Amino acid sequence: MTSIEQINAIGTAGQPWGDAQKAQWRALQRVQRSHAKEVVSRIQALASRFEVVNYGELDCGEDGRYPLLALRSQDWDSALPVAVVTGGVHGYETSGVHGALQFAEQHGADYSGRLNLLLIPCVSPWGYERIQRWNAWTVDPNRSFTANSPAPEAAAVLALLQTLAEPVLVHIDLHETTDTDESEFRPALAARDGKPYEPGTIPDGFYLVGESDRPAPGFQQAIITAVEAITHIAPADEKGEIIGDKVVAHGVINYPGRSIGLCGGMTDAPFVTTTEVYPDSPKATPQQCNDAQVAAVRAALDYALANG
Asked: Where is the Peptidase M14 domain (predicted)?
């Protein structure tokens, strides 16, 4: 974890970072866990049940190279629609990665012959190892799912999706909202951009971010109902908001994801959502967070199959 003091020591307050300051920030980041041991090994262990797709390589220079791996249904059927599950777009959001892997291990076979599954458990392996929101170049991958993306992790996912001939019926992107959003990541964003830091609040509980142009309220509520059996749902604040956006239903807000380059906006799927688990709650364990992600994926796929 990078402290606010370390962040504030980079560059000059009120001035955006240049290349030298970004390099200074990168030098502060330390490997804290292993992508190879914790992610790649679990993906490879599923090779008898899924096709393991190496859709690229992330070259981080002196920090090494990372394989970009996805899991694809072995019985892929061009007559069936596609379900996309993404995790680890922000590498520090642990349950997104391990929830996607747990879903593949425990429930992937349930959808054989019903959906073509494309699972991308860890979009940002450099960030996963360093428990970081940004990539190695101080770019937020989850603002970079755009043409000419500045984030190679995001560009590789977009290129993979271009290989699909079948329509995407449902896409669920697995995320977390953590206390470090306020203690590290939002202050770092303000410092990087030369702007004043404006404190926010962290909602206590699970919530969903739907797409403004495809809100699908029944779909969102089916997921909330499933997750509520696992962990608590974040309440609205005194303004009727979660993270500054109006709550449109129990545990649901909407964003214009495509226009701001969010992973959730990268397909034309009629059913799309982004999960936000809160792992720092005293009322939730790490396993509950993973289980909540799995419950969300299953509910999303089941609803899409029944209503698509």
From this structure: 32-308
Find out whether 230 and 258 touch, Cβ atoms under 8 Å.
no
Query: If DSSP codes are grouped into helix, strand and coil, which group holds residue 276?
Result: strand
Q: Pairing state of beta strands 116-120 and 82-87?
A: parallel
- Number of domains present in the structure of the chain: 1
pLDDT value at position 3?
86
**b/e string for 223-235 if b means 16 or more Cβ within 10 A?**
bbebbbebbbbbe
Q: Give the angle subtended at the CA of 117 by the CAs of 115 and 122, to the nearest 5°.
A: 160
DSSP of 91-148? TT-HHHHHHHHHHHHHHGGGGTTT-EEEEES-S-HHHHHHT-SS-TTS--GGG--STT
Mean pLDDT of the chain: 97
Q: Is 30 helix (H, G, I), strand (E, B) or coil?
A: coil
Residue type (1 letter), 6: Q
Mean pLDDT, rounded, for 106-129? 98
- 168 vs 242: CA distance, rounded Å: 28
Which helix (H) or strand (E) is 254 found in, with range? Answer: strand 252-255
Strand partners for 70: 53
Residue 55 sits in a domain whose CATH number is: 3.40.630.10
Task: Work out the average pLDDT over 219-235.
Answer: 98
Pair 55, 69: CB distance under 8 Å: yes
What is the pLDDT at residue 1? 72
Cα(184)–Cα(174) distance, rounded to whole angstroms? 21
> What residue numbers bound the domain in which 80 lies?
4-307
CA distance 302 to 293: 14
